[in-house]
Design a protein that fits this description.
Strand content of chain A: 15-25%
Chains: A alpha+beta (348), B mainly alpha (199), C mainly alpha (561)
Largest interface: A-C, 103 and 106 residues
Number of strands of chain A: 12
Order of helices and strands of chain A: HHHEEEEEEEEEEHHHEEHH
Helix content of chain C: 55-70%
Distance between the termini of chain A: 68 Å
Number of helices of chain A: 8
Shape of chain A: elongated
Distance between the termini of chain C: 27 Å
Strand order of the largest sheet of chain A: 3-2-1-5-8
Helix content of chain A: 25-40%
Structural class of chain C: mainly alpha
Oligomer: heterotrimer
Number of strands of chain C: 0
Radius of gyration of chain A: 28 Å
């Protein structure tokens, strides 16, 4: 019995380490993925953490192999056998020298691990901020993200657009993290570690992805009923794409006489209490800025695709996508809802 | 499997086998635990000094010197009471004990007057601002302990007057006195933090 | 000394045992006997183990497939909050103080705890705290007319707990229940300390106390300074919620980060409060089943005290992501890694104890063996999490869940099972079935590894904790299904265990005084021990009094230092 136990234990642990290394190697060469794995780092902080983690894994793996191996050996070697005599084994009460020896070794390991870790902490947290950095203020809300670009005069939600950085022209993104209500945590694993958004406690983090594409993440600090659907989408654009996106976002809300009735509903019904569309009388700040709603691929903080049908369903009753969300069901007539959706779909 | 009657254990014991009194160990443990509670409240108080966004600041507090003198001298009177009971002077014990209680009551009354002035005249309550929250909870936590101490003291007084407390109870009285000393010592910390450092 | 021979109030005489059901029940309610209270604690904890286990199973069904609708978001959030709170406070804390209550007086040759009435009071406080917490399922929304359990996670970060974000009374139930249980635990800890220091039998010097007693002493000391900060923080929360205070109110200048500090000043040492008695159990079981004295007893004691000491300086490693300065982060990296040194010493000492022994793999030893491997892994993943930059990635992910279930299930619960298999004969006079025990062990071991090994990976793949569902395209689907399957295997194992407990109580083999051929004092009295524990006050000369009796030619006291 015992023989199988220890052996299968060891084997399962070895396999897990093997998987981990394999996964790590495969992930090296890739850009954005649909699985937000920390083994596929795509920005400097994430890569530094990844390198450090491999080192720590090597050390802890070695410790596991040595101590686990010793343990297995002892369990096998000193098992009770049928052939044993009745006598008790020799009693040994301890040895000062041995105790000292196995105190010193862990101390040395701790020193090595600590120094390596400290170096990376300072490298990431105290990295000098270049002049070319992009500033974004992230404000966590129950249960969505507000992104403000103070220097560019842009306000958007849930989908963060940043330029790809390169070695020649580094444009890292610096996030200033605030919260409007409770604690949240910004985590896009491929771009870097997470940092919490805490009321009354502004935080900062940065990343500099080089490969354009869509990076996924989500809120990592429980923030209430719909914490699970507080998703993050980070679009890393090429410099040209980013400039085009900025130009579009800086325009006021689209004006289209064909949907004037929808706009009137938006301005006169409760929508305007919480949402903003620049160029109209809607200046609410409790919900996402909708000025360029149609430039976003999803609604409800990434919970569903941004299609007219979903928009309509969302306005009728947001609870069917996110039960417990703070937006109320709007109780409009079918005709009003149609007109409102028609208006919203012009907000490119 | 062998069974071993415990009486078979050979007697090799040290004849001077002494153990600490369980009352004292228990009370010291309680004091350690209570100290941790107070530490948390004191840390919160210190951290929030000057962080209130509105409302009155600690400048509105008057330093309760008379109160403090009373409470601290009650530590001395309780020591004298302990001394008295140890040597069997029961009436002297009762007198010192009563004086200790009187000083304790004075402290509570003094705190009550201070709070009444703050609440009724200055409209400064626990929900006014951060200072109010931390002030009332820290001073109130201490006052609660004084009340608990007073309950203990009153029980002893009651039993003394009915003649049930005797010289052999000196050790239990000491254990209770230990708690009272702790309450006094905490006041020194609270007083320093609230009325000296914080003001 | 006079204290030790006081008659034990509430203990049962022979004639009473034949009295009716009601009287039997009454005798349990009014008891102040440490053994009966210990049993009450343990039964209470095992009941809530089943409840919290059922909550876990419900959550795993919900998470088995993406976008599942088995549980509503509200219910899921309530379940994981209650699962955590229950497991830590109603199962973990109560079972260690139950086992401690039962064994500490027996192991040090005393007739009861130092304060029997305080002991009963502490138990009933804890018990009512737990019932109060669960009453929230019925009364949590107060005037809103429906039940709602706490749903703010067991770490309950401010300001989510403020009235503005959680109206109703569910958070109040949580805070007040924990305050009540906190006082119960405080009383239990004081009692254990006073017992261990003041009630030892003749010759039982501090350095001759069984390691389990030592670990209970260290745990109780740690409890004194860790449960109380939680109580203080909960009082602040209650002041905020009922009296309009501003301790954690960001609008009035309060700092939610202060709550985090206060909570983890409690929360981290709490883990050690749970795991240290587990070390104690292992330190009793391994020597007996290896037939050797514990190796390096003084080093084990020193390491235990060292762990307790260091554990009070590491709390902010739960807060690497809240934006501390680089220097602050670095400090907590160092202090956290230092915990590895005394824990390493302990593991080496256990290995050295087995070295040269004759290891019998009875069920208690099997659980301890698995504990050693799992605790090693838990320690190593702990080292990974102490590496602050890596923690920025792993924090609040399923990797963390896997890590602390390795410590709390893989280590703590395995040791608790070992303890129950080891001491059940003493408590009931009957042996648990070895066959069922092996089934229990192997199924639980397999289920445990299927679930929690897999959780590491899903965490590395970016799955955060506390989410009631997840997107289908994240690549987490298969892993989550595996995790859920493992949960069911564990559930089956626990049911086998429960059956074993009941069956053995009714039909089990008679145990006799000393079924394991062990060496500590509790095995010298009949099983179950009489109300007065020992017919005569025992006298000891070494750490293994029964070894001395069984080997008069070669007693321990000749060699021990």
């Amino acid at each position: 019995m015992w023989r199988r136990s220890s052996f299968s234990l060891i084997r399962s642990r070895l396999f897990s380490i093997f998987w981990l290394c394999l996964g790590a190697l495969c992930a090296q060469a890739q850009g954005p993925q649909s699985t937000p794995s920390i083994l596929a780092p795509a920005s400097t902080p994430a890569k530094e953490i990844f390198g450090l983690s491999l080192f720590v894994l090597l050390i802890t793996g070695t410790i596991f192999a040595v101590v686990g191996g010793l343990l297995t050996y002892v369990l096998i070697k000193f098992r009770a056998r049928k052939s044993d005599t009745e006598h008790e084994p020799a009693q040994i009460y301890g040895s000062m020298q041995v105790e000292l020896a196995w105190t010193v070794i862990p101390v040395l390991i701790v020193v090595v691990l600590f120094l390596t870790t400290a170096r990376i902490i300072f490298a990431i947290q105290d990295a000098p901020k270049p002049k070319s950095a992009l500033d974004v203020t992230v404000i966590g809300h129950q249960f969505w993200w507000e992104f403000r670009y103070p220097k560019l005069g842009i306000v958007t939600a849930n989908e963060l657009h940043i330029p790809a950085s390169s070695a020649q022209a580094p444009t890292p993104t610096y996030l200033r993290l605030l919260s409007a209500d409770v604690d949240h945590s910004f985590w896009v694993p491929q771009l870097g570690g997470k940092t919490d958004l805490i009321p009354n406690h502004p935080n900062e983090m940065w990343f500099d992805p080089q490969q354009p594409g869509l990076y996924l993440g989500q809120c990592a600090q429980f923030c209430g009923i719909e914490h699970a659907k507080m998703l993050i989408r980070v679009y890393v654009d090429t410099p040209d794409q980013f400039d085009a996106w900025v130009k579009n976002q800086q325009r006021a809300g689209a004006e289209d006489a064909a949907v004037a009735e929808g706009r009137r509903i938006f301005e006169t019904e409760a929508c305007a209490n919480c949402h903003t569309v620049t160029g109209t009388s809607a200046h609410g700040t409790f919900g996402p800025d909708l000025t360029h709603l149609m430039s976003r691929a999803t609604i409800a903080s990434g919970a569903v695709d941004n299609t007219p049908a979903n928009l309509r369903a969302w306005i009728e009753d947001p609870n069917q996508f996110k039960p417990g969300v703070l937006m109320p069901a709007m109780q409009l007539s079918d005709q009003q809802t149609d007109q409102l959706v028609a208006y919203l779909t012009t907000l490119h | 499997m062998s069974t071993v009657p415990v009486s078979a254990v050979p007697i090799f014991a040290d004849e001077n086998w002494r153990l600490p009194s369980r009352g004292r160990v228990g009370m010291l443990s309680l004091i350690v635990g209570e100290s941790a509670i107070f530490t948390i409240f004191v840390v919160a108080y210190i951290y929030y000094i000057g962080r209130s966004l509105t409302g009155p600041s600690p400048k509105i507090l008057d330093v309760p010197i008379f109160n403090t003198v009373c409470l601290l001298s009650s530590s001395i009177t309780i020591i004298l009471a302990e001394h008295a009971i140890k040597h069997g002077f029961m009436w002297r014990f009762a007198a010192w004990w009563a004086l200790t209680m009187a000083l304790g009551i004075e402290f509570l009354v003094g705190t009550g007057i201070e709070w009444k002035d703050l609440i009724v005249n200055q409209h400064f309550t626990i929900s006014t601002n951060l200072f109010g929250t931390t002030f009332y909870s820290l001073v109130g936590l201490h006052a609660t302990h004084v009340v608990v101490g007073m309950v203990g003291l009153s029980l002893v007084m009651l039993f003394t007057l009915t003649g049930r407390v005797k010289q052999e109870h000196a050790e239990r009285i000491e254990v209770l006195a230990l708690y009272w000393h702790f309450v006094d010592a905490v006041w020194v910390v609270v007083f320093t933090v609230v009325y000296i450092v914080g003001r | 000394m006079a204290d030790q021979t006081l008659p034990i109030p509430g203990s049962l005489g022979e004639e009473q045992q034949r009295a009716g059901m009601l009287e039997w029940l009454h005798s349990w309610v009014v008891t102040v006997d440490h053994k009966k209270l210990g049993i009450l604690y343990i039964v209470y904890a095992l009941f809530f183990l089943l409840v919290a286990g059922a909550e876990a199973i419900a959550m795993r069904i919900q998470l088995a497939v993406p976008n599942n609708h088995f549980l509503s978001p509200e219910l899921f959030n309530e379940f994981f909050t209650m699962h955590g709170t229950t497991m830590v406070f109603l199962v973990g804390m109560t079972i260690i103080f139950g086992i401690g209550n039962y064994l500490v007086p027996l192991m040090i040759g005393a007739r009861d705890m130092a304060f029997p009435r305080l002991n009963a009071f502490s138990f009933w406080l804890s018990a009512f705290g737990g019932l109060f917490l669960y009453f929230s399922f019925i009364g949590g929304f107060g005037l809103y007319g429906m039940g709602s359990a706490p749903d703010v996670t067991w770490w309950a970060y401010a300001p989510l707990t403020a009235k503005a974000f959680t109206p109703g009374h569910n958070t109040d139930y949580w805070a007040i229940a924990l305050i009540v249980m906190g006082f119960g635990t405080l009383g239990a800890a004081i009692n254990i300390l006073a017992t261990a220091f003041s009630m030892r039998c003749r010759g039982m010097t501090l350095m001759r106390m069984p390691l389990f007693v030592w670990l209970m002493v260290v745990t109780s000391g740690l409890t004194l300074i860790t449960i109380t900060p939680l109580t203080a923080a909960q009082v602040m929360l209650v002041i905020d919620r009922f009296l309009g205070g501003h301790f954690f109110d960001a609008q009035a200048g309060g700092a939610p980060v202060v709550w985090m500090h206060f909570f983890w000043i409690f929360g981290h040492p709490e883990v050690y409060v749970l795991i240290l008695p587990a070390f104690g159990i292992t330190s009793e079981v391994i020597p007996v089943f290896s037939r050797k004295a514990i190796f390096g007893y003084p080093a084990m004691v020193a390491a235990s005290v060292g762990i307790a000491f260091v554990s009070t300086t590491v709390w902010a490693h739960h807060m690497f992501t809240v934006g501390m300065t680089s220097v602050g982060n670095t400090f907590f990296v160092l202090s956290t890694m230092m915990v590895g040194i005394p824990t390493g010493i302990k593991i080496f000492n256990w290995i050295a104890t087995m070295w040269g022994g004759k290891i019998r793999f009875a069920t208690p030893m099997l659980f301890c063996t698995a504990f050693l491997f799992q605790f090693l892994c838990a320690g190593l993943t702990g080292i990974m999490l102490s590496v602050a930059p890596w923690d920025w990635q792993l924090h609040n992910s399923y990797f963390v869940i896997a890590h602390f279930h390795y410590t709390l299930t893989g280590s703590f619960v395995f040791c608790i099972f070992a303890a129950i298999y080891y001491w059940y004969p003493k408590v009931t006079g009957r042996m648990l079935s070895e066959t069922l025990g092996k089934w229990h062990f192997w199924l639980f071991l397999i289920g445990f590894h299927v679930t929690f090994d897999t959780m590491h990976f899903v965490g590395i793949l970016g799955m955060p904790r506390s989410i009631y569902t997840y997107e289908a395209d994240r690549g987490w689907n298969a892993l989550n299904m595996v995790i859920s399957l493992g949960g069911f295997i564990q559930a089956i194992a626990v049911l086998i265990f429960a059956w074993n407990l009941i069956y053995a109580y009714l039909r089990g083999k008679e145990a006799g005084n000393d079924p394991w051929d062990a060496w500590t004092l509790e095995w010298s009295t009949p099983s179950p021990p009489p109300a007065y524990n020992f017919a005569a006050d025992p006298v000891v000369r070494s750490r293994r009094p029964l070894w001395d009796i069984k080997h008069p030619q070669d007693p321990d006291w000749k060699y021990e230092r």
